[in-house]
CGNR zinc finger domain-containing protein (Streptomyces althioticus subsp. attaecolombicae), 195 residues
Amino acid sequence: MALGTVTASYELRFDTGRVCLDLLATTHPGERLGSVDALRAWITGAGLVPEGTPLAHADPSWLDAFRELRAHIVPLVRAPGSPPQGPALSRVNDLARSAPPAPRAVPGADGTLVRRLDGPPGRDALIGAVARDAVDLLTDPAARASLRQCEGDNCPIVYVDASRGRRRRWCSSEICGNRERVARHRRRTAALTRA
């Protein structure tokens, strides 16, 4: 994949409602952060940096750091009824201490203001931004109460249910919801042919 190219939408998803949960979604249905290029695409797609921000300085240590953060966030959001404690919470808190990349408003090609970063973002600054999002999620009672586990078969994705009535069942209506509707149709068709 060329630098700056975003992978196909089925590979990287940004529909969980939080950047920290989008990071968790990079494990399903398999490892989506399999290369530094994929991580660069995820960082841009998640909105951690403005489109076109150079990330050529990212190296394999970035992959390790993002995967480590992801592993610490998992137990904190998968048990929404219990207070998160232990080494995972301690590590997320430590990582959240790093200052996020500094944004600037600069004139774009057409004269309107666009967001740019003050300089190339560092790994720790980007990790800190995701960890800070996790801390914000974990400490916001309304957002935490809206955490849902996808009801799709074997789908581990956790998302924030911001739907009207808070009745969203799937991480994505187009992906898991569609699979469920197809499976339901097949069950009805099979029942009719047996009858």
About this structure: Confidence is low (pLDDT under 50) at residues 1-10.
